[in-house]
Amino acid sequence: MISVEQVASLHKAMAEDDTLVLEQLVIDIQPADLAEFVRNQLPELGLKILTYLPLEARADVFGYLGVASQCALAEEMTEKGLSQLFVHMNSDERADLFNGLSEIKRQSILRRLAKEEREDIRRLASYEEGTTGSVMSSDYVTLMAGTDVAQALEVVRHTAPNAETIYQIFILNEKKQLVGVLSLRQLILAKPEALIDKEMTKELVSIHANETREEAARLISRYDLLALPVVDDNQCLVGIVTYDDAMDVAEAEATEDMHRGASIGPSNEGFGQASIRSLYTRRVNWLVLLVFANILSGAGIAFYEEMIEAYVVLVFFLPLLVASGGNAGSQASTLMIRGLATGDIAIKNWGRLFIRELIVASFLGLTMAVAIIGIGFWRGGIEIAQVVAYSMLAIVLVGSLIGLTLPFLLLKVGWDPATASGPLVTSIADIIGVLIYFAIATSILAF
Amino acid sequence: MISVEQVASLHKAMAEDDTLVLEQLVIDIQPADLAEFVRNQLPELGLKILTYLPLEARADVFGYLGVASQCALAEEMTEKGLSQLFVHMNSDERADLFNGLSEIKRQSILRRLAKEEREDIRRLASYEEGTTGSVMSSDYVTLMAGTDVAQALEVVRHTAPNAETIYQIFILNEKKQLVGVLSLRQLILAKPEALIDKEMTKELVSIHANETREEAARLISRYDLLALPVVDDNQCLVGIVTYDDAMDVAEAEATEDMHRGASIGPSNEGFGQASIRSLYTRRVNWLVLLVFANILSGAGIAFYEEMIEAYVVLVFFLPLLVASGGNAGSQASTLMIRGLATGDIAIKNWGRLFIRELIVASFLGLTMAVAIIGIGFWRGGIEIAQVVAYSMLAIVLVGSLIGLTLPFLLLKVGWDPATASGPLVTSIADIIGVLIYFAIATSILAF
User: Fold this and answer.
1) Rounded to whole angstroms, how far apart are CA atoms B436 and B258?
2) Which of B245, B214, B246 is nearest to B417 (CA)?
3) Rounded CA separation B250/B258 (Å)
4) CB distance B291 to A372 below 8 Å
5) With CB atoms 3.0 to 4.6 Å apart as the test, which of A223, A248, A263, B197 could cross-link to A423 if both were Cys?
6) Same domain, yes or no: B247 and B174
7) Same domain, yes or no, for B434 and B370?
């Protein structure tokens, strides 16, 4: 983190317009920290700070900003300044920025770039959002099969300044198809006259550019990769995804899952920076939808109005029973959703998981029925105690099984299973809980 | 993933005890995939598969197993086999395994190892669980300040086979204090006669061994590091944390946060493998606790029993109003908790966030009051419509502010703020919702 002294010095030097001090200050701060500082300034001021950095470092800091801030700054920049930045940015980051710019800015940038870079930007920017292609980089090192180790090291040295990683080297055949991967470690340890074909790893993990970026992140995490090669339909190498991009994707996915579980819509901006308007929009739809779901619970209650008038004591246990079903259901759905997201469970295991949940939920329901039976007796006598205990068991069981099943059903119809955690499961469990409770009450109280 | 054909071939070769085929098969499968296959076998069988691998690859596959499976296999191994494995395992993984073994196994292993490795295991295994020290590795490359680039490359070549990463090289002064870091990329690009002191990066990010491992993962993600150096009180280098360990920590943290948000206790095993007993234990405590929290809601209702008898229609809106407060609260708490976990917001921003939430929640409450007022009028006339609308506004507002505040309070007293998402916030919002509803009803209906 940037220190308080550094912030104070920055503000002081900016106020005094002391170029020499500023140049020294900004180069000493970690790029990620300086980016955070820049993001919290007004665009003109942020832009001014960036200009004190040499071009390489400026592109580096700019890369840490996030697309929203990048676009705000890009609007303030001259055509020349922006296209210089474009040349030095990582290929994946500049493609994202390109997609965020206005059409006029885009055209003016493309005009100023060399043909090769223009095509690179167009190609990377053309992948649909959410695909591996949309997060991949084209700054990597390739070698042709048949090269020897000494030549290979020369190529790596030559490419090093421009590649995002030189630690994984990708080996292509004459058709540009990916045939192997070689780590710099393997290369350094190999004899100079050996052929790289002998040294490279042929059993490699790769991904198609149209697969989801979450799948790319999962592969990188599962196989502990530094960089995952991305291929097209013909097994030709079209890009790489590096471990640091995978970390960002995994973090964004976990955040989105948690938010969805609390019925909050997705967003690209951080919670700290989010506007009142966007927070309202992301939250209101589900809340209102859940209101109407809960009106169904109310309708269930209205249906039993006469019984409630006869046994007002039943109302006393209503929130408790209904909440217990929702809580057990939300536990089951959360376990399922996270298990599916981390790849710990698969959809084919559903049968076994259902039976296990049936057993676990039965024990949970029994425990909670025992916990509540005494209060039932105290408040309403033996019959009410029975109603409450049986209802608790049934509601916890049904709630848990709904929580387990719903994520699977959503996955089957192509929705994000994370939608099923939290309020949605709770609301469904609520409605069913009300019906179970009053049905059991009707049968035991013989109303 | 391991293919169906590979699994079939493995089973066939095992049944026929065909060593040659097995040796070829296991070496072609990715270590992570083979580990998954081994984990799903009985220990004796899993052990047998591992023996078909050369020692290096065996240690690699073993490292992917997870501590629980490792310990089960270790119990089946001979002393010699296990200590051979120990020599070839990554230092961080073997320290974790060591901590999972029985005291007898530990002593027998230590006796068979060289002094240096014995001390390394003892040292790494001594850090408290959850600290950076407990996940760090001691297999890294160091250089003394003052070395030249050509010498440095020699050292790297020499150390490469045993180091976890050779892509980040750590530079120490004569007191063994960390003074700089050099990437292999920088080293390869530098002139052979240059001093590494000129080439290395001096503004480095490091962490103390007693800091939490989550903080280490956050630093690695924030600064896009390959390896984070870990230091002691004297700034001496004692270990490194690599990016792949950071990914595992971040994934485990997100899982734990989500589970805690659904009131599920933590666990080291995956959901797919979890036993009925452990699932019951992790879920029952909070469920029963929440039962007693909800009894308070019931008590609130009991207090207003006479009013309910007079206006049964109020019960119709009870689940709806109470759930809305809980839902809004759970949205606010989830946004806060995730923002705190990703470092997107800080505890010092609380005041600003509170005011923003006050405005957002007011709009949300108004929208929901409008959504419900018609049904209130239809079911109970103008007075009930008023009660329901005012209650909705007040309950959503209060629920949201509780959801925002609770994670901060928990953080202040040293608890995990993730405890505050889901059922805990919902239960508190429930109780307060019941009280608000009937208080407003009492005042408007002049009961």
Assistant:
1) 30
2) B214
3) 12
4) yes
5) A263
6) yes
7) yes
Does A246 share its domain with A183? yes
> How is residue B228 written in tokens?
């984070």
**For A290-324, what is each residue's pLDDT tens digit?**
888 888 888 888 888 888 888 888 888 888 898 88
Q: Are residues A85 and A210 in the same domain?
A: no
Rounded Cα–Cα distance for residues B20 and B24 (Å): 6
CB pairs under 8 A between A and B: 318
A101: left (phi over 0), alpha (psi -120 to 50) or beta: beta
Tokens of A221: 């995490």
Answer positive or negative: Cα dihedral of B29, B32, B37, B39.
positive
Nearest-by-CA chain B residue for A359: B276
Residue B257 lies inside a defined structural domain of this protein: no
Cβ(A183)–Cβ(A168) below 8 Å = yes
CA gap B282, B291 in Å, rounded = 16
- The range of the structural domain enclosing residue B335 comes to 276-445
> Which candidate from B203, B283, B308 shows the least CB-CB separation from A312?
B308
Minimum Cα–Cα distance from A298: chain B residue: B316
Interface predicted TM-score of the whole assembly (ipTM), two decimals:
0.85
Asked whether the beta carbons of A325 and A399 are under 8 A apart, the reply is yes
CA–CA separation, B337 and B204 (whole Å): 29
pLDDT at B447: 65
Residue B220 pLDDT class (50, 70, 90 cuts) = very high
CATH number at residue A106: 1.25.60.10
User: What pLDDT is attached to residue A255?
Assistant: 86
CATH of the domain at A407: 1.10.357.20
Residue A114 identity (one-letter amino acid): A
The rounded distance, in Å, linking the Cα atoms of A86 and A121 is 9
> What does the angle CA A430 – CA A435 – CA A436 come to, to the nearest 5 degrees?
95
Nearest to A364 among B257, B283, B305 (CB): B283
Q: A42-52 burial by CB neighbour count: b if 16+ within 10 A, else e?
A: ebeebbbbbeb
How many CB atoms lie under 10 A from the CB of residue B76?
14
Answer yes or no: is pLDDT of B269 > 80.
no
Does B145 reside within a domain?
Answer: yes
Give chain A's domain count. 3
Average pLDDT of the residues of chain A: 88
| A338 with B255: Cβ contact below 8 A | yes
Question: Which residues on chain A are in Cβ contact (under 8 Å) with B288?
Answer: 367-368, 371
* Alpha carbons B357 and A293: distance in angstroms, whole number: 25
Cα–Cα distance, B74 to A436 (Å, whole number)? 50
Residues A386 and A283 in one domain: yes
Burial label, A277 (beta-carbon count in 10 A; 0-12, 13-18, 19+)? exposed
The rounded distance, in Å, linking the Cα atoms of A35 and B60 is 38
Give the CATH number, domain containing residue A191.
3.10.580.10
Question: Which is nearest to B426 in space by CA: B339, B340, B324, B353?
Answer: B324
Amino acid A79: pLDDT: 87
Q: Residues B142, B236: contact at Cβ < 8 Å?
A: no
Nearest residue in A to B252, CA atom: A342
- Asked if B361 contacts B333 with a C-beta cutoff of 8 angstroms, the reply is no
